[in-house]
Amino acid sequence: MRKTLAIYQREIAYYFQSPVAYAVIAIFLLLAGYFFYNLLGYFNISSVQAMQNPVQSRSLSLTASVMQPLLGNMCTVLLLLLPLLTMRLFAEERRSGAAELLFTYPVSDASVILGKFGAAVTVYAVMLAMTLPYPALLFHFGDPEPGPIVSGYLGLLLMGVAFLSMGTFFSSLGDSQLVAAAATFGCGLLFLIIGWMTPFVSSTAGAVLSELSIVRHLDGFARGAIDTNDLVFYLNLTVFFLFLCARVLDSARWRS
Questions:
Q1: CB atoms within 10 A of CB 103
Q2: Cα angle, residue 121 at apex, residues 116 and 125 outer, rounded to 5°
Q3: Stated pTM of the model
Q4: Are 183 and 170 in contact (CB under 8 A)?
Q5: pLDDT of residue 126
Q6: Most buried residue, 72, 142, 218, 219, by CB count within 10 Å?
């Protein structure tokens, strides 16, 4: 545990002593703020129009009109930004030769992976926490449903953790940060759009593809439903890529 904590602290220090974390957080907040401002503006316009139509006014909801689309937009932004947090975790050490030195230390692969992965998750959690003023504003000036907002943030957190596990794995494969980032983005994009193929395949294959879709599992959280199936999906996806990363490091340790 002490070795894991030492690696975690070193990685956290790197993130916040370099412009990486600040740049990723700033871009994320800028885009999230832009989407929130526009969605809230469209909601206000719809509210004014609904004043003349009582039927339409009953269907208006701050949660459905603002927060749910915001969470979906944030999902897409995170797909682009999270690879920047993980691309150097192992690739930089391989490039500099520090990986070979790390493999000679009396520290387990699990400690190394958990320390580095935990640091990336911490930065990601900080990013999400800095968007909490958006729903806070809605609660201050309106009456949104708290359940879908809380579960939506939980789903976004779990989805991001799964993305980070992908990035950790791809960073362990080589010494190029750009290749690691591109591979992470491509893999995340595949899980994001894989459900689009369901109308063109058999019902059995379509059910499998639908289960692999990150969007499908995130939709349940955004609606306020915390399903065990969705929780298990994100947990399995995270553990799977961390397991692959452990196998890569184990192979590299034996070769060194």
A1: 18
A2: 150
A3: 0.88
A4: yes
A5: 93
A6: 218
Instruction: Single out the residue of 173, 25, 156 nearest to residue 87, CA to CA.
Output: 173
Per residue in 117-167, pLDDT (tens digit) is: 999 999 999 999 999 999 998 888 878 888 888 999 999 999 999 999 999
Report the distance separating Cα 132 and Cα 135, nearest Å. Answer: 6
Q: What whole-number distance in Å separates Cα of residue 251 and Cα of residue 116?
A: 18
SS3 (DSSP) at 35: helix
Structure tokens at 138: 């809605």
Q: What is the token pair recorded at 17?
A: 């002593």
What DSSP assignment string belongs to 49-117? HHTT-HHHHHT--HIIIIIHHHHHHHHHHHHHHHHHHHTTTTHHHHHHTHHHHHHTSS--HHHHHHHHH
| Confidence grade of residue 54 (pLDDT, cut at 50, 70, 90) | low
List, as one string, the DSSP characters of 188-202.
HHHHHHGGGGGGGS-
Burial of 87 (0-12, 13-18, 19+ CB in 10 A): buried
Per-residue confidence (pLDDT) for residue 50, from 0 to 100: 64
Span 182-214, pLDDT tens digits: 999 999 888 888 877 777 777 787 788 888 888
CA dihedral for 75, 77, 82, 85, sign (positive or negative) = negative
Secondary structure element (H or E) that encloses residue 154, with its range: helix 146-171
Task: Judge whether 63 and 89 are in contact, CB under 8 Å.
Answer: no
Question: Residue 15 and residue 120: Cα distance in Å, rounded?
Answer: 8
